[in-house]
Design goal:
single chain; 138 residues
Length: 138
């Protein structure tokens, strides 16, 4: 699928796409991936926010352990909850940054598609229409 087709079909609502985080982790530090983010302001902003929250995870866990010894044992629980929220936020921001990058940059779309980072759902085979679907007869 070409970039122009991808964008037009996505905007028309005919396809959806997701981000495979397992493959994203192996590519996230590569030169090509980082150069794609540096050339696009929107995704770069989301990527920086993701890095900021990722940097807060370890200090919040260290604070949890320290405060549980200083104040009370149960203080660990809210600090652990904060770390979990930061991890969830980091994953969501990474996913959103990759999705936005795939929609605004043709080179990024090609790279992400070839690496298997973005997965496209809802593509119909050429010549088939929704009315020919056996699950949804007309």
């Amino acid at each position: 699928m070409q970039y122009e087709d991808f964008v037009s079909q996505y905007e028309a609502g005919r396809i959806h796409f997701g981000v495979d985080r397992t493959k994203l982790g192996g590519v996230a530090a590569s030169e090509v991936y980082l150069s794609l983010f540096n050339s696009n302001e929107g995704p770069r902003r989301l990527s920086r926010m993701s890095t900021f929250f990722r940097a807060l995870i370890i200090p919040s866990l260290i604070a949890a352990v320290a405060l549980s010894f200083i104040i009370a044992w149960w203080v660990f629980i809210p600090c652990l909850a904060i770390a979990v929220v930061f991890m969830s936020l980091t994953h969501r921001l990474q996913r959103d940054a990759v999705r936005e990058l795939a929609l605004v940059d043709a080179d990024a779309f090609t790279f992400l598609r070839l690496e298997g980072i973005i997965v496209i759902f809802g593509q119909e085979k050429r010549g088939e229409h929704a009315s020919n679907d056996k699950k949804n007869p007309v």
